Structure prediction request, 279 residues.
Amino acid sequence: MNNQPSPYGSAPLARQTRVRIPHLKQMKREGQKWAMLTAYDMYSAIIFEEAGIQVLLVGDSASNNVYGNESTLAVTVDELIPLVRAVSRSTRQALVIADLPFGSYQASSEQCFHTAARFMKEAGAHAVKLEGGTEVLPQVEMLTRSGIPVMAHIGFTPQQEHQLGGYRVQGRDEDAQRLIDVAKAFEAAGAFAILIEMVPGDVGRAITEAVSIPTVGIGAGNQCDAQVLVWQDMAGLRTGRLPRFVKQYADLRSVLHNAAKDFALEVSTGAFPGPEHTF
Ligand code: KIV
Prediction:
């Protein structure tokens, strides 16, 4: 018998049901932290859900991590929809969030609604995420009114990297208050959570204390209600200089590299396939 405490926290796992927005809000009230990872395909989604990851984000980071682009700007709605569909089809418990890609929501609330509706109808997303500040408040209001849960992404917003002058920590000094006000405005507009990227730890804490909805940090210190990482970063697939906020929990790159090398060697020597793999 498994007597371990539930990795999903009291409400969701006890009933083995899908994690839903009220569960996340309840976890904040109870001071219970939760984890979110990106996922872009069936196996990663299944493995992360089995490991107790409550929320899966099909991020526009698929642009870099799946499609091989330089930045998140290039990925399209049509490219993300099949990935979201794969993740939501493969999971039973995790809440699946679809990231709205650059150019698919900024123009108007109507544009935003139509894009978000595609992710909900065609891909089975349970919620969407969008980036920005007060300029996208009407979009958040429109989605909320339409019954589409929305997570707002503030701080460093990669879709605005050219305007922000590259990957830079946001919210330093007097800019901290602006970010706190933006977070409060998103809460008032109906956002169910705020993702905070690359801000000083004390700003992550101040935002978390200022709102009653959950905050999800990535490079925002350990006082946020939840934490998120891109899975390829977390599992050690990525090489080169990593952002300071990344912690690698495995060296999957070496595992895969060695497996592929062994396969190639055994094929070249004729050791594979052996009799046990032959009909
Ligand atoms: O697309 C993404 O992966 C993100 C990260 C900040 C988690 O938005």
Summary: The mean pLDDT is 94. The first helix runs from residue 10 to 15.
